[in-house]
Q: What sequence folds into this?
């Protein structure tokens, strides 16, 4: 064996052969072939090495496949998140912030999943759920009344016996809290 390793064999091939010979079964086959050189012993050693090399190639192929598929998955995920960002703080053509223009619940709730409980049951996104949990009871009531029961701010103000401006202020503050929670969740 020392003759083999003293010759000018490529280092990668040496490593492959050394790993092959690290198994006792393979090492014994080599020793047996050296001590008793016959066609049968050489054939057994060659078949064992071919099986070992095939396994190495399959493992390398699978590792590369996993690696490149994970890279492609990350690229698709980043592209999806880039294209579907929830940008409530950007100004539109008239100079108004988009939060001021939200009149429906398209970003906050899934209309088909509402039960008889509060708005919390219909929420889908983790950031929205965390933001909703941070709201005060009054803000939760306003958001639920506005989006689940589709009440106008005037109706909510009559129900709570507070001014419509207070309803609007609480509503905007609740949306800001939810927006920040979504932003923080997406940054993780």
A:
């Amino acid at each position: 064996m020392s003759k083999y390793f003293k010759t000018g064999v490529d280092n990668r091939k040496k490593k492959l052969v050394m790993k092959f010979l690290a198994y006792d079964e393979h090492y014994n086959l080599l020793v047996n072939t050296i001590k008793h050189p016959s066609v049968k012993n050489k054939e057994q050693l060659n078949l064992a090495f071919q099986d070992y090399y095939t396994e190495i190639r399959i493992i390398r192929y699978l590792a590369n496949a996993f690696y490149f598929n994970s890279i492609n998955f990350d690229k698709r995920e980043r592209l999806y998140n880039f294209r579907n960002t929830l940008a409530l703080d950007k100004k539109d053509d008239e100079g108004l912030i988009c939060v001021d223009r939200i009149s429906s619940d398209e970003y906050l709730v899934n209309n088909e999943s509402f039960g008889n409980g509060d708005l919390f049951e219909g929420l889908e996104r983790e950031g929205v759920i965390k933001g909703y949990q941070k709201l005060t009871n009054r803000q939760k009531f306003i958001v639920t009344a506005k989006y689940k029961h589709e009440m106008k701010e005037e109706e909510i103000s009559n129900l709570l016996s507070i001014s419509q401006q207070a309803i609007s202020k609480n509503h905007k503050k609740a949306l800001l809290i939810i927006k920040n929670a979504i932003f923080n969740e997406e940054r993780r």
